Amino acid sequence: MSYQQERYIAELAVQRACLLTQKVFFEKAKGTVSKDDKSPVTIGDFGAQALIISAIRKNFPNDEIVAEEEASSLREDKNLSAEIWRLVKDIKLDDAESDNILGGPLASEESMLDIIDNGNSAGGPKGRIWALDPIDGTKGFLRGGQYAVCLGLMVDGDVKVGAIGTPNLPIDDAAPIDASQSAAAGNGVLFSAILGEGATSRPLTSGTLAASKPISMRPVAKISDAVFCEGVEAGHSAQGDNAAVAELLGITAPSVRLDSQAKYCSIARGAGDVYLRLPVKKDYQEKIWDHAAGDLIVREAGGQVTDIYGNRLDFSKGRTLAANKGVVAAPKAHQDQVIAAVKSVLKLKSVLK
Ligand SMILES: Nc1ncnc2c1ncn2[C@@H]1O[C@H](COP(=O)(O)OS(=O)(=O)O)[C@@H](OP(=O)(O)O)[C@H]1O
Ligand SMILES: [Mg+2]
Ligand SMILES: [Mg+2]
Ligand SMILES: [Mg+2]
Questions:
Q1: Residue 259: CB within 6 Å of ligand 1?
Q2: Host H or E run for residue 214
Q3: Mean pLDDT by 10 residues, the chain (353 residues)
Q4: Are 342 and 328 in contact (CB under 8 A)?
Q5: Which of 81, 178, 197, 254 would suit a FRET pair with 273, their CA atoms being 20 to 30 Å apart?
Q6: What CA–CA distance (Å, rounded) separates 177 from 20?
Q7: Whose Cα sits closest to atom 16 in ligand 1?
Q8: Ligand 1: does its nearest atom lie under 6 Å from the Cβ of 146?
Q9: Annotated catalytic residue: which of 21, 42, 138, 306?
Q10: Is the ipTM of this complex over 0.90?
Q11: DSSP character string of 275-337
């Protein structure tokens, strides 16, 4: 089965949601609230989730959705809910036909809350399940850095389609990776992949989809020549361990720190080579929406994505990657070497503890 229609809807829905997040990005307050786990969520996250789930419901009414956010706090905070609705009701693609394909505007504020709560699937190994991160890298979004709107489709636990909007990455796939890149005029990229059919990038627009180009990881002769990326937040990955792995591999270039799945996208287009996300906490389980789309895009661009033990990411375990720890993405030919370095750094660390 080809997933062309799913990819088309995913890209169009992500592109429409980016119109909303881009609007919020330039607001100072961004309606930020703190969730139970102390992590931030903004009106941009809620609004993008509502728009994307509404588009999936319209086109694939029987599919399930695992999404990061839920509406209980909005039901208790009428002002915040009204603020999100004011934004959501006015967002549309400037091509009426494309907007209609996504189902047009949402019906009401109340139905918007119900739609947000439609992302509550438990996930698992059977059936068609979308994984949605309406804003990945919310801390980067708040800081004025990189963020990504991420959507993947899993069928029987396997990722078949991925789409990622990165409003702050440069359009040019050949542009060097640069941690300071942000909302410069003319930025904004839409990445996508279908399993077995390769990965592409195209400029984000406000209407119909722009023409796409195939992307691929760049060839790296020696792993010591690689550029590696990692997250900005020290609480999300062990930057000291990442650095030790790079040193062991003979990599001398400093890491490039980027928030969100912009890291997967950057290595997939050859603007970097290796993505290290070594765990900070033993018991943290990575969320499927933080990786589903990026994992497929990197693999379809010629890379390999595994956990720190060298096992493929397993999206069939529910809302989290319960069977995996950390993430290591690298060119296929070098993955074993990178995993060997990861293992020896982590082994040494446990011996020294
Ligand atoms: N302890 C811990 N370990 C690993 N990951 C965690 C942890 N806590 C949170 N999160 C998730 O990190 C997501 C953001 O990842 P990033 O790659 O953007 O991190 S970084 O800011 O670049 O460091 C972030 O996604 P968003 O909430 O969508 O921003 C979280 O789901
Ligand atoms: Mg979050
Ligand atoms: Mg995330
Ligand atoms: Mg998020």
A1: yes
A2: strand 213-215
A3: 95 98 91 90 98 98 98 96 97 98 98 98 98 98 95 98 97 80 78 98 98 97 96 95 96 95 98 97 96 98 98 98 98 97 90 63
A4: yes
A5: 197
A6: 25
A7: 260
A8: no
A9: 138
A10: yes
A11: EEE--SSTT---BGGGTHHHHHHHHHTTEEEE-TTSPBP-TTSSSB-TT--SEEEEEGGGHHH
Cα–ligand 4 centroid distance for 150 (angstroms): 9
Which residue has 């493929």 as its token pair? Answer: 312
Q: What tokens were used for 332?
A: 């296929």
Atom of ligand 1 nearest to the CA of 138: 29
Distance CA(214)–CA(228), nearest Å, equals: 22
Task: Say yes or no: CB of residue 235 within 6 Å of ligand 1.
Answer: yes
pLDDT of residue 85: 98
Determine the pLDDT at residue 10.
99
Q: Tell me which amino acid residue 263 is.
A: K
> Which protein residue's CA is at the shortest distance from atom 28 of ligand 1?
136
CB 267 within 8 A of CB 229: yes
List of residues 6+ apart from 83 with CB closer than 8 A:
31, 43
pLDDT digits (tens, 9 = 90+) for 45-95: 999 999 999 999 999 999 999 999 999 999 999 999 999 999 999 999 999
Query: What are the structure tokens assigned to 293, written together?
Result: 């789309």
Q: What is the pTM of this model?
A: 0.97
Residue type at 343? Answer: K
Which residue has tokens 């937040």?
A: 233
Q: Could you give phi then psi for residue 137, rounded to 5 degrees?
A: 85, 40
Distance CA 96, CA 102 (A): 10
* 45 in catalytic set: yes
Marked catalytic residue, from 42, 45, 166, 307: 45
Tell me, yes or no, if 138 is annotated catalytic. yes
Q: Which residue has the tokens 């627009």?
A: 205
Probe residue for ligand 1, chosen from 138, 141, 236 as the CB with the greatest number of ligand atoms within 8 Å:
236
Q: Provide the token pair at 278.
A: 């070594």
